[in-house]
Specification:
By secondary structure, the chain is mainly alpha-helical. It has one domain. Helix content is about 60%, strand content about 0%. Helix 1 runs antiparallel to helix 2. The protein starts with 6 loop residues before the first helix and ends with a helix.
Protein backbone atom coordinates (compact mmCIF):
# COMPACT_ATOMS: atom_id res chain seq x y z
CA UNK A 1 0.00 0.00 0.00
CA UNK A 2 1.25 3.48 -0.85
CA UNK A 3 2.14 5.73 2.08
CA UNK A 4 0.42 8.84 0.72
CA UNK A 5 -2.52 7.67 -1.32
CA UNK A 6 -4.20 10.52 -3.19
CA UNK A 7 -7.29 11.62 -1.26
CA UNK A 8 -9.08 12.48 -4.50
CA UNK A 9 -8.35 9.05 -6.01
CA UNK A 10 -9.61 7.45 -2.80
CA UNK A 11 -12.80 9.51 -2.94
CA UNK A 12 -13.37 8.68 -6.62
CA UNK A 13 -12.90 4.98 -5.84
CA UNK A 14 -15.16 4.89 -2.78
CA UNK A 15 -17.99 7.30 -3.57
CA UNK A 16 -21.18 6.03 -5.17
CA UNK A 17 -20.99 6.26 -8.96
CA UNK A 18 -23.20 9.36 -9.23
CA UNK A 19 -21.17 11.24 -6.61
CA UNK A 20 -17.86 10.17 -8.17
CA UNK A 21 -19.05 11.39 -11.58
CA UNK A 22 -20.06 14.73 -10.06
CA UNK A 23 -16.67 15.09 -8.36
CA UNK A 24 -14.96 14.28 -11.64
CA UNK A 25 -16.96 17.02 -13.40
CA UNK A 26 -16.05 19.50 -10.65
CA UNK A 27 -12.37 18.61 -10.96
CA UNK A 28 -12.51 19.25 -14.70
CA UNK A 29 -14.12 22.69 -14.25
CA UNK A 30 -11.28 25.24 -13.94
CA UNK A 31 -13.77 27.84 -12.68
CA UNK A 32 -14.11 25.91 -9.41
CA UNK A 33 -11.19 26.37 -7.03
CA UNK A 34 -9.30 23.49 -5.46
CA UNK A 35 -10.21 24.97 -2.07
CA UNK A 36 -13.92 24.88 -2.86
CA UNK A 37 -13.68 21.26 -4.04
CA UNK A 38 -11.71 20.29 -0.92
CA UNK A 39 -14.26 21.97 1.33
CA UNK A 40 -17.08 20.13 -0.44
CA UNK A 41 -15.26 16.82 -0.16
CA UNK A 42 -14.67 17.37 3.55
CA UNK A 43 -18.31 18.32 4.12
CA UNK A 44 -19.32 15.10 2.32
CA UNK A 45 -17.16 12.97 4.60
CA UNK A 46 -14.09 12.71 2.34
CA UNK A 47 -11.56 14.95 4.14
CA UNK A 48 -9.19 16.76 1.78
CA UNK A 49 -7.34 20.03 1.47
CA UNK A 50 -6.63 22.14 -1.59
CA UNK A 51 -3.11 20.75 -2.07
CA UNK A 52 -4.11 17.14 -2.91
CA UNK A 53 -6.96 18.41 -5.07
CA UNK A 54 -4.53 20.61 -7.01
CA UNK A 55 -1.98 17.80 -7.38
CA UNK A 56 -4.69 15.45 -8.65
CA UNK A 57 -5.93 18.03 -11.14
CA UNK A 58 -2.41 18.52 -12.50
CA UNK A 59 -1.86 14.77 -12.79
CA UNK A 60 0.84 14.83 -10.11
CA UNK A 61 -0.57 11.99 -8.05
CA UNK A 62 -0.04 8.35 -8.98
CA UNK A 63 -3.39 8.00 -10.72
CA UNK A 64 -4.46 11.58 -11.45
CA UNK A 65 -5.43 12.82 -14.85
CA UNK A 66 -4.12 16.18 -15.93
CA UNK A 67 -7.49 17.92 -16.19
CA UNK A 68 -5.84 21.08 -17.51
CA UNK A 69 -4.36 19.19 -20.47
CA UNK A 70 -7.68 17.45 -21.12
CA UNK A 71 -9.41 20.83 -21.27
CA UNK A 72 -7.25 22.02 -24.15
CA UNK A 73 -7.45 18.73 -26.07
Amino acid sequence: MLANVCKVCTALDTLPDDDAARLDRLLADARISARDIAEGMTAAGQPASRMPVGRHRRGQCDLGLNYYMLAVA
